[in-house]
Write a structure and sequence with these properties.
- It is built from 20 helices and 15 strands.
- The protein is of the alpha/beta class.
């Protein structure tokens, strides 16, 4: 190429010399042409001549994206970009789909910005430069991980909170029949179709406002260890949630009172005083402050507010405030119908879960197969309340098939631990203690042992949606003397079905560090949502 250019230059020089005659005249003409070229390049052309002759061409792709942009695919190496610096504000003109001229950001200026951010070596694939096409609508893509709202979602989200709840209740009443769902095991539920539709609408609609008022540790500081950990785990996961929590109380369908009954007891109760009134007065004053500061409590007298308390004293700390006790949705481990505080259909039975290691809440899950469960029934625990002494009286050291103890003796625990006993038993006895609730119910589910509940007036967790007769045995307190006969009367086929159901039920009782669909956090939340819907009255036209 260079030889050809040199030959062309020699020919041009000869022709100029032939026409000009004199070498002085030739030198003058060459100087004029050179000066004119420099002036032309400097003042007229938008880019240096080297850029026009040496840069690679820019090509326009025929692909047109959803947001009506044209992708420019350039092939100029990064080293070449750095070598030729562009003139500031120099326009690059492209043809759009309407054959109109539109001005975009200079391509080489964009290259310069990229070269400053990234080193030339190693070379990397350059991102396409995009310009929006004029006179065509822009499509705004959703944030990463989110889909574009459907027409139904936009409609529901536009409804005021009360109207959205009416819409949800009507939809649940005409829930489509579910034949087979890979995520839900039908035999566990009273009506799996109703539950699935209600759960879907909860995910679509529900928004919760959390009061920021209240000082730690009673408020906003979850207690995550021990038998009362359920209230703490729910608080922890609720306050970290982004799907259901809203900062706009006008959009809220429910209002959460974020206190811990366990922390309340630890901070305010005087040991051995047997006086819970200071705890009740503290909550009364808190609710009075909330109702005076915000209008939301007074609009419904607290019926769209809820609290979560697993400590045995949870129900008794509400007595000083009538609306708090009567109207608020209470998620309680102590779900005792005989006390007159827990109301079935309005309040929620909260599972009592023993968390020994908060960093590993799912430790020791699972159990042995049925053929490796030689023990018919097992219980070990402290002898408090009215039921456990009776249980020990009739079955303690009375039968080889019935392993019934007080605190597990050392001679026994050295051979087999408490957890191993539950994993090796067909039935795990879950008697009430001082109150009707017992953490052994959830422990039995964790270890795939069919729970035997002995607690009159107790409402089992999620009783509004779960059919407890399919995976547990409920024995009246008066039938404790006949306990072995009751268990032996259950056919093996039915026991095998119940034991399989316990395995399938397990995922609904797990505290996951990050909530998973249908897990314990979502089940508690659904029960609260379902209770709120029960308050809604749908006007029926005559």
């Amino acid at each position: 190429m260079n030889n050809i250019l040199q030959l062309i230059a020699i020919v041009l020089m000869k022709e100029l010399f032939r026409h000009c005659g004199d070498w002085r005249r030739l030198f003058f003409v060459v100087a004029v042409i050179t000066t004119a070229g420099v002036v032309l390049q400097t003042f007229i052309l938008p880019q240096p001549l080297s850029t026009f002759f040496l840069s690679s061409p820019v090509t326009v792709s025929s692909y047109k994206s959803l947001n009506s942009t044209i992708h420019l695919r350039e092939t100029l190496p990064l080293a070449r970009v750095e070598q030729f610096q562009p003139i500031p504000n120099a326009p690059v003109v492209l043809l759009n789909s309407s054959n109109e001229l539109t001005q975009s950001v200079p391509i080489l200026q964009e290259r310069e910005k990229v070269s400053r951010k990234r080193s030339p070596a190693p070379r990397r694939r350059r991102k396409n430069i995009k310009t929006y096409v004029k006179n065509e609508p822009k499509f705004i893509s959703p944030p990463p991980g989110r889909t574009v709202p459907t027409r139904l979602q936009r409609y529901v989200w536009s409804l005021p909170p009360d109207e959205a709840l009416v819409y949800a209740k009507k939809e649940i009443e005409r829930a489509p029949i579910i034949i087979d769902d890979p995520n839900l095991y039908g035999p566990l539920f009273r009506n799996v179709s109703v539950f699935k539709r209600s759960y879907e609408l909860m995910e679509l609609i529900l928004k919760i406002y959390i009061y920021r008022d209240g000082a730690r540790p009673i408020f906003h500081q979850p207690h995550l260890r021990g038998i009362y950990a359920s209230e703490g785990w729910f608080m922890k996961l609720m306050e970290a949630n982004r799907q259901f929590v809203t900062r706009d109380p006008e959009r809220a369908h429910l209002f959460y009172l974020p206190y811990s009954a366990r922390q309340l007891q630890m901070e305010l109760y005087v040991p051995d005083s047997h006086n819970m009134k200071p705890l009740s007065i503290f909550l009364r004053d808190y609710v009075n402050m909330i109702s005076a500061k915000y209008p939301f409590w007074n609009r419904t007298h607290g019926s769209d507010h809820f609290l979560v308390a697993c400590h045995d004293w949870g129900p008794y700390t509400l007595n000083e405030h009538k609306e708090l006790s009567r109207n608020t949705i209470k998620a309680l481990c102590n779900a005792d119908l005989s006390e007159g505080i827990f109301v079935a259909g309005k309040d929620v039975s909260l599972p009592e879960t023993t968390i020994r290691t908060p960093k590993r809440p799912l430790r020791n899950l699972g159990g042995k197969r049925v053929s490796q469960r030689p023990i018919l029934a097992f219980f070990a625990g402290n002898m408090h309340g009215r039921v456990r002494p009776t249980l020990l009286k009739y079955w303690g050291d009375k039968d080889e098939d019935m392993k019934i103890y007080g605190p597990l003796p050392d001679r026994v625990s050295r051979q087999m631990s408490y957890v191993q006993h539950m994993k090796s038993s067909k039935y795990c006895i879950c008697p009430m203690g001082y109150e009707v609730n017992s953490p052994r119910i959830v422990e039995a589910i964790y270890y795939e042992c069919v729970p035997v509940i002995i607690a009159d007036n107790f409402v089992p967790p999620f009783n509004e949606v779960l059919d407890w007769s399919t995976f547990s045995v409920i024995v009246a307190e008066k039938d404790i003397p006949k306990l072995k006969d009751v268990l032996l009367a259950i056919p093996m086929r039915r026991y095998l079905t119940m034991q399989i159901n316990v395995k399938m039920l397990q995922k609904h009782f797990l505290w996951n560090p990050r909530p998973i669909k249908y897990d314990l956090f979502h089940m508690v939340l659904h029960s609260i949502w379902f209770s709120r819907l029960n308050q809604i009255q749908i006007p029926h036209s005559s």
